[in-house]
Write a structure and sequence with these properties.
Blueprint lengths: L16 E2 L3 H6 L3 E5 L2 E6 L3 H10 L1 E5 L4 E7 L4 H9 L14 E7 L5 E9 L4 E5 L4 H11 L4 E5 L3 E7 L3 H6 L4 E2 L15 E6 L2 E6 L8 E7 L3 H9 L4 E3 L2 H10 L26 H6 L5 H10 L3 E8 L10 E4 L2 E12 L4 E9 L8 E6 L2 E8 L11
Parallel strand pairs: 1-3, 4-15
Antiparallel strand pairs: 2-3, 4-10, 5-8, 5-9, 6-7, 7-8, 10-14, 11-12, 12-13, 13-14, 16-19, 16-21, 17-18, 17-20, 18-19, 20-21
Family: Belongs to the GcvT family.
Keywords: Aminotransferase, Methyltransferase, Transferase
Catalytic activity: N(6)-[(R)-S(8)-aminomethyldihydrolipoyl]-L-lysyl-[protein] + (6S)-5,6,7,8-tetrahydrofolate = N(6)-[(R)-dihydrolipoyl]-L-lysyl-[protein] + (6R)-5,10-methylene-5,6,7,8-tetrahydrofolate + NH4(+)
Length: about 400
């Protein structure tokens, strides 16, 4: 099942936490559901309408459920903090320049994926954004494995907004943000996977040009006491509407981006998942990160299965858990699926056996007792439009 299908009814969940914008969402007609331990809006006017609006204009997503972490060395040795992170992440953190961010993976001793995350070099600290459903386990894992000389702070007083879509830069620039540092870049000059601090009046914002939709856009870290004012100011721009988790899921699926807990898990390694780009060249050669003993041989030997994209004939969508067949042999399982509002057809991600993973391979997906014809296609399903 997809992210949307995992949402529970409000009455069925106890002790669910409320984010700073909870009332703000409800006042704007957000249908609130439980997700990752928080009440969050799944939709406002409808998933398809919100999806298409984000593709055409700019959508504002509240992703404050995600974990924001800051890692530094007690004695100010930034290189030591990078080295400590490299023991846990397979990316070359020491080569990450200030103001740059990188996708990476938190791995266990067997190379299983505990979480996927973004890490930013902020100059004196490293800033990590981890998934909401795993953040407490991530914190425990990091505290267990980081040296005592490394400080880990959970920035739980901060919220996180994502402004996504081709008109995101126009809308955000209208707020008159100024670089927080004298030599900092203007907002419009940020490129994809770059970050910098800004001031909105006297309110500090941490902004990266990144996101989870395949569109141009920004993620904005803001203190909890300022997030409502910022969200309101953004939605006063004609380009911007608030968007729920439902459209976030359909957008990321079209973009071919995996969702932790569905397409990624501790039972999945980076090679099988098709995430080898997160393993930097030096790390492939030198190892030295958790799980390297299992992962590095897989780069040479290959894996039995791999993650692929599927397009299905007809209008019926395949959901997580649907079986994938080649003739009378089951060769895989769908991990994410849904109807693509952009392509107007069902799409899915699945893990299939390597001999069935070649582009244009014809397979079948079993949905509600019926076998639906499907073809293997490259991802993303919809081209990325990042500002490079």
């Amino acid at each position: 099942m997809s992210e949307i299908d995992s949402f529970d009814d409000e009455e069925a969940v106890l002790e669910t936490q409320r984010l700073p914008l909870d009332l703000w969402h409800r006042e704007r007609g957000g249908r609130m559901v439980e997700f990752a331990g928080y009440w969050m809006p799944v939709q406002y006017e409808g998933i398809i309408a919100e999806h298409l609006w984000t593709r055409e204009s700019a959508g504002l997503f509240d992703v404050s459920h995600m974990g924001q972490l800051e890692i530094s060395s007690e004695d100010g040795d930034h290189a030591a903090a990078a080295k400590a992170l490299e023991a846990l992440l397979p990316g070359e953190i020491s080569a990450l320049k200030p103001g740059r961010l990188r996708y990476s993976l938190l791995l266990d001793e067997n190379g299983g994926i505990l979480d996927d995350l973004m890490v930013t070099n902020r100059g004196s600290t490293f800033y990590l954004v981890v998934n909401g459903a795993t953040k407490w386990d991530d914190l425990a894992h990091l505290r267990e494995h980081l040296p005592d000389t490394i400080t880990l702070n959970h920035l739980d007083e901060h919220g996180l907004l994502a402004l996504q879509g081709p008109k995101a830069v126009e809308a955000l620039a209208r707020l008159g943000l100024e670089p927080a540092m004298a030599d900092g870049p203007q907002l419009v000059d940020l490129k994809f996977m770059q970050a910098a601090p800004y001031l909105w009046g006297d309110r500090p914002l941490g902004i990266s040009r990144s996101g989870y939709t395949g569109e141009d856009g920004f993620e904005i870290s803001v203190r909890g006491e300022h997030i409502e004012a910022l969200a309101t100011a953004l939605c006063e721009q004609p380009q911007v509407k608030p968007i729920g988790l439902g459209a976030r899921d359909s957008l990321r699926l079209e973009a071919g981006l995996p969702l932790y807990g569905h397409d990624l898990s501790p039972d999945t390694d980076p090679v099988t998942a098709g995430l080898t780009f997160a393993l930097s060249k030096r790390r492939r050669e030198d190892g030295g990160f958790l799980g390297a003993e299992r992962i590095l041989p897989l780069l040479n030997d290959g894996t039995a299965t791999t993650r692929v994209g599927l397009v299905l004939e007809g209008r019926m969508a395949a959901r997580e858990g649907a079986s994938v067949w080649s003739g009378e042999q089951q060769v895989g399982t769908v991990t994410s699926g849904g109807f693509s509002p952009t392509l107007q057809r069902p799409i899915a991600m699945a893990y299939v056996e390597r001999p069935c993973a070649a582009e244009n391979t014809s397979l079948e997906v079993e949905v509600r007792g019926k076998r639906l014809v499907a073809s293997v296609v490259p991802m993303p399903f919809v081209p990325h439009r990042y500002h490079r």
